[in-house]
Structures are given as structure tokens and as C-alpha cells.
Amino acid sequence: MTAETEINRPQLVDGMGRTIVNLRISVTDRCNFRCTYCMPADNVEFMDRVKLLTFEELTRIATIVSKLGINRLRLTGGEPLMRKDLPSLIRMLAAVEGIDDIAMTTNAFFLKEHAQSLKDAGLKRLNVSLDALDSEKFKHVNRRDCLQQVLDGLQEASRVGFKSIKINAVAMRNFSESEILSLIDMGRSDGFEVRFIEFMPLDSDQAWERDKVLFGHEIVDLIKEKHELIPIDNSLDIGPASEYRFADGKGKIGIITAVSNPFCDHCNRIRMTADGKLRTCLFSTDETDLKQLVRSGASDEDIAEALKQAVLIKEPGHKINLESFERPTRAMHAIGG
Questions:
Q1: What is the pLDDT of residue 5?
Q2: Residue 238, pLDDT score
Q3: Which CATH superfamily is domain 3-335 in?
């Protein structure tokens, strides 16, 4: 893309003046884990496969949003690698003019097998959900005994040449305190950026309570007992994490304070569920049915207009800290991480 083309691209701007450049695309609600902060232990009802957007439909929507100024895509789930032939979709998306970056969030269980094909297809970055390095704690939170498979997947992703691999760890009180420094040590040793995310009310069991959240400032204080941290200025302007460099030069970390200090003022993203519902906030209570438009013969212009109208009334913030907060009817795995 030329500089002139970039300057002339339209922008997708919401009613708060925030420019939307990032679309998160859930490719499936299915997952092989049953994380306590996301899914029930059993009896999970997944979407019928015919309800999922096809690769061609996903690519059409990516093409439409790219013309509206969105240039970054992230594939999510559920576990995205449970969607058959995912590298084919990545190749299709990578060929869309205007899409500069494709990333994926994964639990890494299948990553050892697929890392090379994902990179070859055009995937640029990986975020791996990993909350604990203690095998018993891992099994407790994920309800699966497979820590080594996850670690093997991480190492294979590094081996095949992914330059950006981030570890996402949900921070929960009376659980995460003993894991934080171990995760940081691994990240500094292996070249992964570790990001700690405050536990949010998105669990299927609706067991979330504010008292269960390990807050960002507490995480920073704990890390400072061992490491000197240097804040990175303006990191919230380009992403959801407050970032810090280690004073000894060995890497950096991120803290996502979604509960205690939300980054809503800087939010530049929207997301789409696996069944084609556009959500302008992770905690949206309303959705725009893009799949219905796609499958009813709507033109690209009609779909673009629906996107613009939805973004125009994007929520100012998620209201977690207000009495008027409403939990979304979908759990995290059905929204898209």
C-alpha cells in the first residue's frame, strides 16, 4: 500500500472520536480446555457448524472493513485451532488489500503441530493464554492436565520464527500471586512478553466477584520486589496494556487493568462472533447481525453502512465499576477472546 493510498483511506470513527483499526474475528466457540474464568466444566452447548461464517464470508467481511480503515485482524475462539484448515483462512485474509497484520490468540495445545503452517500462511503474531506454570495450578484453572503440550507449542512457535509471542495470564487473587514471577522468568528467558489481565466477569458459571480480582497495581508491586520496572510512555495509546521495561534491558511486561483502570477511552477495536454478530465492546448487550446481511444478499455498501452505524454508537465504556453494569449474555468462549 502506498503512502498516498494510506492517507486517502476512510476512517471508521465512533461517536467518542475513537478511530477503529482492529477487528477481532472469532472462528469458533469450541475449545478443548474448560477454563474456570471462561467456560463451565461440562455440558457446554456449542454452535451448530452451519451457523459459523465460512472462510469466504469471513474474507468478504475482512475486505469490507479494510476499505473502512481497519488494517489489523486477530483470530480468536474458543480455540481457533479447532477450526479445520485454519491456515487456508489466514492465507485468504493475508491476501486482502489493506490488511497489514494478522494475529491469533490460542491456548497453544495444538501449536506444536501447526506453528509452521500458520507462519507460512501469513500469521504475524501470537498471544498464548497461560495462567500458571505449576502443573497442579494449570490443571485446576484449565481443567486439563496438559501443561507440557502447551510449553512444547510455545517452543515450536519460537523455533519456526514467530517474532512476537505474548503470554496472556488472567490475574486472580489467591491463585496468581505465586505464578507471576515464574511466568516472568520464563518470558525473560525465552523472549516472550508476559501480560497480566485482571479477571473479568465473563465466566459461564457467573462466579466472578470483584474480590477475586488481583489488581494491576498489586501485580506491579509484587514484580518490583524482584525487578526494577520502567514505565513505557503512551503504551495505552496503541494497545490495551500499560507496559513496563525491565531496567536490565531483558524484555518487557504488560498489565491490562480492565477492571481497576479500564482503557476504554483508547479502545480501537470491535469484534465479531463466530456466528457473525458484530460487537462493539467485549461487554456489549447488543449485536449487529452481519451474517444475516451476508446471507440475505446485501451489497458490500449495505454491510459497510451497517458497520458504520454500529461503530457510531459504540459504548463509551464497559461499566464494570458502575451499578448499571450488565453482564453479557454470552460467555467469553462464545464472544471471542
A1: 47
A2: 65
A3: Aldolase class I (3.20.20.70)
